[in-house]
Design goal:
Largest sheet: 8 strands, antiparallel
Pfam families: C1-set (PF07654), MHC_I (PF00129)
Strand content: 25-35%
CATH class of the largest domain: Alpha Beta
CATH architecture of the largest domain: 2-Layer Sandwich
Number of helices: 7
Number of domains: 2
GO biological process, one term: immune response
Keywords: Glycoprotein, Membrane, Transmembrane, Transmembrane helix
Distance between the termini: 118 Å
Protein name: Ig-like domain-containing protein
Order of helices and strands: EEEEHHEEEEHHHEEEEEEEEEEHH
CATH topology of the largest domain: Murine Class I Major Histocompatibility Complex, H2-DB, Chain A, domain 1
């Protein structure tokens, strides 16, 4: 499927001035930008420039700008009431909104709308019940701050949803080469010894893939899925592709097989990469341990050699000390003068 999202952040400082920034994304690719200092909707991707050129750039940008200006005016009141109800009297206040729509592969559609303040969830649109649901513990505040009418709910679930999906389809039409492309991941598996904890870290890395959705799983002996893998999730690359890493920890004495499975829409079949221990990790002994053992052996050999030299029979220290060169010259001079 494909998704259009708009992230809006309102920040009110101690001076009472409200800053507003909006970022539009299609499938995690930024397409447009707006902030209330320039009060202008700025296209940020070639596909958007083509869309605007064909669809009338002035009309497209004007509609987006007008919508965001209305959001700014409406949310000034929301933020004021939120600050009052939460007794916020000093410092920066942050209110955020994320809304958008999704066009699934089977042509079904979904709309979503979420808000938060000061980093905490505030309310969200329940697409099944077609209701705005307050976050846990926020029902009383929500009822005082935002009065949600039936007309507003109908607008979000019907008219706005239709507008959103139509806009997303236009993005896909003019940005097909970028937004609907499929790029296969490059996958590799590597290991790293953790000598402090006497463990081996196994990492599976997939990078350079598009679209974003991917499935990566570590499997032991071809059947047991490892659910304890550490990951930072799917991250963006600079070229608008994505990457993901998953790492598991195993005992150096573990002789079982470990395989990384990767599935992506660009692949005809699932990739399967089995870990092969690197030269530094084998026989259950990691490189740092081998180095320590070699150093100890070398020290023992040197110590043994020194002790053997001291105890070897027939090797005695001579009591004769050669006369200094100066003394010998003086003696020779005296003898010749006599």
């Amino acid at each position: 499927g494909h998704v259009w999202k708009e992230y809006i952040t309102f920040t009110e400082g101690t001076d009472g001035h409200l800053n507003m920034v909006a970022v539009d994304m299609v499938n995690d690719i930024q397409t447009a930008y707006y902030d209330n200092t320039i009060r202008r909707y700025v296209l940020k991707h070639p596909c958007m420039e083509e869309l605007a050129r064909v669809e009338d750039p002035d009309s497209w940008a004007r509609k987006a700008t007008e919508f965001l200006l209305r959001k700014e005016q409406h949310n000034k009141g929301v933020i004021g009431r939120l600050k009052k109800e939460t007794n916020h009297s000093s410092g920066v206040f942050v209110y955020q909104q994320m809304h958008g729509c999704e066009l699934n592969d089977d042509e079904t559609t979904t709309v979503f709308w979420k808000t938060s303040f000061q980093g905490e969830d505030f309310s969200s649109f329940d697409k099944d019940k077609e209701l705005f649901t307050p976050a846990a513990g926020k029902a009383q505040i929500r009822s005082k701050v935002c009065r949600v009418t039936k007309a507003w709910i109908n607008y979000i679930s019907e008219d706005w949803k239709q507008e959103c999906i139509e806009g997303l389809k236009k993005h896909l039409l003019y940005g097909k080469e970028t937004l609907e492309r499929k790029v296969a991941p490059e996958v590799r598996v590597y290991d790293r010894p953790d000598s402090e904890r006497n463990l081996i870290m196994l990492t599976c890395m997939a990078t350079g893939f598009y679209p974003r959705a991917v499935d990566m799983t570590w499997v032991r002996d071809g059947k047991t899925k490892m659910d304890n893998a550490h990951t930072d999730g799917i991250l963006p690359n600079e070229d608008e592709t994505h990457q993901i890493r998953k790492t598991i920890e195993i005992d150096p004495e573990d002789k079982r097989n470990y395989t990384c499975w990767v599935d992506h829409s660009s692949l005809e079949k699932q990739l399967s990469i089995t870990w092969a221990p690197s030269p530094g990790v084998k026989s259950g002994i990691t490189v740092p341990v081998v180095v320590v053992i070699l150093v100890l052996i070398l020290v023992l050999l040197i110590t043994g050699f020194v002790i053997w030299r001291k105890k070897k029979p027939g090797v005695k220290k001579s009591d004769y000390t050669p006369a200094q060169r100066r003394e010998a010259e003086d003696s020779s001079s005296n003898t010749s003068s006599n």
